[in-house]
Amino acid sequence: MRLFYPLIFFLFACNLGFCQGNFIIKDNRASYKVKFKLINNLIVFPVEVNGVELSFLLDTGVSKPIVFNTLEGIDTLQVHDTERIFLRGLGSGKPIEAIKSRKNLFKIGEAINVNQTLYVIFDTSMDFAPRLGVPIHGIIGYDLFKDFIVEVNYSAKYIKLHDPKRYKAKSCKKCEVLDLEFYNSKPYLNAEIDVDDKKVPIKLLIDSGGSDALWLFEDKEKQITIEEGNYFEDFLGSGLSGSIYGKRSKIKKLYLKDFTFEDVNVAYPDSASIHYARKFVDRNGSISGELLKRFNMVFDYGKSKLTLKKNGKFNKPFDYNKSGISIEYGDVRLVKERQNRSGGGTKYDNPGTDLEGSTPIILVTTYKYSLKPAFTIVQLRKNSPALRAGLKINDVILSINSRESHEFTLQEMLEHFYGKDGKNIRLKIDRDGKTMNFGFKLEPIIKQKSPSN
Question: In this structure, is the dihedral angle defined by the CA atoms of residues 17, 106, 26 and 43, taken in order, positive or negative?
């Protein structure tokens, strides 16, 4: 296989220092800003790989970039200098086969690396599009952070890449600066949780590729345990080595230096799913997107520092999906949409209804048929309101609270299930070609652990 770009360009780039496998910003610029989309607490932004523009997740939990070669849009991607390997990650399944490829050209706006190593995964189950509603072709982490000081602004939804040699930190009295530690090129921070009104120190992986708030690994010696009777079992996500299941609950408080969060959502993955992750014995869990998005932050891997400044999302309460429904984009469906258009006509026959010489305006009702994404129920939590109401897996949602489902994005649809306790949800669904109606109310599933309790 070969790159799209001429050999002469590659040789010239080597003379500029690219061949060391580092990113630089073209034209000797001091910084470059990249806009991103925040989808389900995950950062999605464009990355060009060997001349093909793809959508990547920014994932601090990975070392080398990974490309999923099963999705639409990368059929023309070519890689070379390859070898077959096996990758291992979260999940209780076996390692998955991948291709390791060197000397690939990566461009993130004006940031460029012409000697980037990547891994290509062909496993068809690694498809994030149904869960997120947008195609995800790959993930990138450490190799971007190691070469820049990376500013992540969750408020304005941009990443700013700074040349470390020319970066000048802004004075920030309300910021907290945390020390970073690294293991296998992944960043960790120290935090504390409240256990029986005592602060217990924990070490957390910074995992921007996870959408939850906090994961904790059960450890009786460190008093990291689940309160009996105050949790529910759930699907937590997908890792490189399969599905991850566990329990969800809340902790009373989480401390990041002087920043304090109360009633924080926490997931406890089952031991089989995190066997590989626990090879770093000091690790107690992960801090992920639902918490990270409450800050604007600056990563300085060179100095092992992370600067946090709280933003407008800081005090947002931590909610769970109270319906018990998990949905994905399924197959498309044919939708009949009504359209009103105005058309000209001749004079009305009845002169009393028209002015002499005028052209009447007639509203003509027309319809068009178009293919729209279908939202399919893929999981139902045990004893959830939706399950008790009679909904089933593979039901296709046609409308929610009298509004057609195709008018929503996937994220907008899910927001209905995070409403206040007692909120009425009315669903019209298609079940094997039959239209049916269901209703239920959202209800709390975890007892709040605020200090007043």
Answer: negative
